Amino acid sequence: MSEMLNDPMMGTGPQYELTASSEHSPEGTERMEVSMGPHHPSTHGVFRMDVELDGETITKLKPVFGYLHRNHEKIAEGTSYLGSMPYTDRLDYFNSMTNNWAYALSVETLAGIEVPERAEYMRVITAELSRLQNHVCLIGFLVQDMGALGTPLMYAFRERERILDLFESLSGARMMCNYMRFGGCRCDFPQGWIEQAHQVVEAFPKFLDEFEALLSENEVLMSRSQEVGVLPKDLAIDAGVTGPILRASGVNYDIRKVDGYGIYDRFDFRVPLGDHGDTYDRYMMRILEMRESVKILRQALRDIPEGDFVHPKAKSRGLRPPAGEAYGRIEAPKGELGFYLISDKSPQPYRFRVRPPSLINLTILEDMCLGHTIADSVIILGSVDIVLGEVDR
Amino acid sequence: MEHRLPASPHMENMSVNIPEIQSVADAINDAIAGAGVLVIENENPSGQHSLLFQNEHAVACARWLKQESPWKLDYLSNVTGIDWTEDALKVKFGKDAEPEETRGFLESVYHLYSMEAPIGPLVFRTRTGNRSDDVSLPSMTPVWRSAELQEREIFDLYGIHFKGHPDLRRLMMWDSFEGHPMRKDYVEPDDYEYEPTPHADVLKKSAAHQNPPAKGGDQ
């Protein structure tokens, strides 16, 4: 390298001394430190990984957080309970419906508010639609990280558009829906909405078959993802990993089944489980979960009763819950999303805490990546499914 | 290369069955000599009562809950910091509270569940001596790894020092940041992005900005 620097042909511009910042490995090769991100397309936002490489193999990986930190919790402690509702949309901005639900559920637990039956159905329908579009886009991004530029992601976005159109006609916004209220939802389904939703749901399995025919047995996808980033069962439980990643490692834990919050105990659906815990299982988990979500949606759209969409006695403005604390949680598409609230009888929460699944699922990122190549780390991160709005809050 | 996944058999719907909080406290006190676990009642409709662990026995109690207790609480879901200021405690305990009760402190709260049985949340908390110099608490990361990032966040935003944490650094704020933004008495700087510049006019203006003249004085 120094010969090159002294070469007169290299010009007289500024000359940089190249130094290796880490010690030599026993084989005599130098380790290289690479800072991936925060502005790297494969990090899904402003996320950085400090990676140490031996050749192409990862020997150390430290995630660096905080580039999107705006202290959501502090802002929420300075505003009313209702005032935080639109702000929860911005946590995991792919799934504002489930964020709203988790927050509404926590406030309802804290204040003892009841939810009418129709509103519970409306929540299930919007949340499962949200899960469909989250999972389908995640797969699109994941295969894009593997090099399938364009096509699968565009197919995924085409389907997502249909669901976002439904959200738009329902709430006025495509992504920041701000749809749920304490004790129900903000407005009733517009006329004809259920029929439209029915069409979208009925068309979805056909699309899934097509999507799977394109991807599931694709040679590149299989060889890039099978046995890559294996997450053992015990480690997953110990590290508090939740959602499809946990179930890909074979742990039967779905809060829709465990807590049966809302009215999930009325629906007939199964919890898919993986048995390898690798990236391919995590991919397949999303496909199978979408098929189960379609099942739930069919039942919910069939059974939804007439009635109130919000409890007539529920109070949203100027809400002063009884003093005390409550923790409420739901199965968001990315894992367990929980809100922990403390009330001191004032209109603002004394403590407002978000339990972000995306952040806690990153605890084991290093363990999954060690020994794999740097190109694999991109796929492993993609299969974790993070949204930086929620990681950094 | 067939690699399809088996779907689970239909899991029976389970109801959340929280063990009686006093019986949990008694069980810990029986199992660990001198644990001194207290029950903190929660009068809220949620009914989520909690346990208060003594700092010196907290890790042993937590390990017992995870490994030996009949509930096998192997899943630590949520870890939270709370800043209890003197004013807040005066509101909570009323005007004629003992001065001992209204001495401010920082608190760390843990929510436990079990992967095997539908139990939870079991809530336990640990408390610091005060809000200024006695702010150490035992870390739960050696027991449940899911506390790792969450305790780092509490260290960052509340300034609780977790003893025994393997990698206690700031998580959200940058390393040179001073103060703990989630504390109730944290005062924001007027300009986060203040940087001195060699330009004389700007320097003068920024000096006035950083040290505003006292109110009522000569402007």
CATH architecture of chain A: Orthogonal Bundle
Most extensive interface: pair and counts? A-B, 67 and 51 residues
What is the fold named in CATH at topology level of chain B?
Answer: Beta Polymerase, domain 2
Number of domains of chain B: 1
Question: Helicity of chain B, in percent?
Answer: 10-25%
- Compute the number of helices of chain A: 16
The assigned structural class of chain A equals alpha+beta
Percent range for β-strand residues of chain B: 15-25%
Q: Encode the helix/strand succession of chain B as letters.
A: HEEHEHEEEHEH
**β-sheet strand percentage of chain A:** 5-15%
Helix content of chain A: 40-55%
* C-alpha-based Rg of chain B, rounded: 23 Å
Q: Span from first to last CA of chain A?
A: 44 Å
- CATH names the topology of chain A as Cytochrome-c3 Hydrogenase, chain B
Question: Which word captures the global form of chain A?
Answer: globular
Global mean pLDDT of chain B: 81
CATH homologous superfamily annotation of chain A = Cytochrome-c3 Hydrogenase, chain B
- Domain module tally of chain A: 1
- The CATH class of chain B is Alpha Beta
Work out the radius of gyration of chain A: 23 Å
